[in-house]
Design brief:
Elements lengths: L18 H12 L5 E5 L20 H8 L5 E5 L4 H8 L11 E3 L1
Parallel strand pairs: 1-2, 2-3
């Protein structure tokens, strides 16, 4: 990351606490077009709720994914529920920028 104090170049980015984390972030920033970003649905994109059928993506998740997806090789959502349910509950269908989103359920 180039900074002697190990801060992220973009202050909006978290600062990884391990060397492996710093190396991973550096690789992502240096070569985003080769990166695959994998995210869990429940607990990451959507809050954990008592009734899993009521889980919905956080309001900022879909716009963030739509902005990220064109900049990396692939974005994947991984879930224990059927993929179609995650697409529906996440609000991912038909969103510009998410045409190539991979949902594994």
């Amino acid at each position: 990351m180039g900074n002697p104090d190990n801060t992220a170049e973009d202050s909006a980015l978290p600062v990884p606490v391990t060397q492996a984390g710093r190396d991973g972030l550096r690789a992502l920033l240096d070569r985003p077009r080769t990166a695959v970003i994998g995210l869990d649905f429940d607990g990451t994109l959507a809050p954990i709720v008592a009734d899993p059928d009521q889980a919905r993506a956080h309001p900022g998740a879909v716009p963030a994914l739509a902005a990220l997806a064109p900049k990396v090789a692939s974005v994947a959502v991984v879930t224990g529920r059927p993929a179609g349910v995650a697409v529906r509950n996440g609000g991912f269908a038909g969103v510009p920028g998410l045409e190539h989103l991979v949902v594994l359920g």
